[in-house]
Amino acid sequence: MQMGVPLGIILLLSLFATLSCVLFFEVKHYHYFYLFLAINIPISFCNPKHVDFLKRTYSKSDYYRIRLTENIALALPFGAMLLLSGYIFSGLSLLIVSLITALYTPKIISSYAVPTPFYKNPFEFIVGFRLSFALIFLGYYLTYISFIYSNFYLSIFVVLAFSVLGMMYYIKVEETYFVWIYQFTPKAFLFSKVKQAVYSLLLLCLPVIVVLAVMRPTGVFIILGFMLGGIGMLATGVFCKYSSFPEELSLRQSMLLLFSVLFPVLILFTLPYFYIQARRQLKEILL
Fold first, then answer.
1. 151 lies in the same domain as 258
2. Does 188 lie in the same domain as 80?
3. I need a surface site. Which of 53, 162, 185, 222 has the fewest CB within 10 A?
């Protein structure tokens, strides 16, 4: 049974709901920022490459069906949180905007694409960033709130949330060709992927780390400890991805990864376990 993608969706929705609840209860008038952020999600899927691809590949009726499904699925979590929090008008407005952008794509909108701070590698962070940029902005906004209210551990939570988010970027398995083209041994390939992933995570967490250092200059060891924990989770995610390559994650592997997030101490065991399994799987593909 293949559980990698469903597991990623569950973790992503859980992280989203947690961040949203914290912000709705802690920040006054936050729903205006939340609504603005949510409206940009369906708009981001109006980029010309994506729209043109769908138009060339599918019939007109299928095209509109796909666009409606995309927009509603992306806007629904935000709309649901707004409605459940009592912001009926904002929630309905978001759903209406999602429907309009699915049926009609103005040129001024279709030229919009979400930029990323990453280079061409690792592609997991580029794709993941564009799919979850709303959560990333939520994290940065949460960091701003933690600075305003001098809540050190709120920013620590953001660091861990970004680490889990980065780990989820590696759940989806790529085609075998994109691994085979590397002239690496399995060990060199895995450590290259981890190195790229850690660099990208540090880049993502840099603004949060700066805020943490400003708020508590004497807490450098606390910051370092949590950052190392986040890197451990990320490395576990990378190794887990290739532990069943080129197949999707099995139910057992998905559950181990989930428990590693819920009980981080398990990383001490799951990280080397997934690494050994990944090396074994990649021996048939790499040198």
1. yes
2. no
3. 53
56, 97: one domain: yes
**Cα gap 30→114, rounded to integer Å:** 23
Token look-up 């887990």 returns 240
73 and 139 fall within a common domain: no
Last residue of a domain, one of 97, 113, 129: 113
Cα–Cα nearest to 287, from 196, 183, 216: 183
Question: Rounded to whole angstroms, how far apart are CA atoms 157 and 22?
Answer: 11
Q: How far is CA 253 from CA 103, 144, 259, in A?
A: 40, 36, 10
* Alpha carbon distances (Å) from 150 to 172, 221, 283: 37, 18, 50
Q: CA-CA distance, 85 to 79, in Å (whole number)? A: 10
Q: Are residues 124 and 81 in the same domain?
A: no
Domain that holds residue 247: 116-287
**Boundary residue ending a domain (113, 137, 158):** 113
Q: Is the pTM of this model over 0.85?
A: no
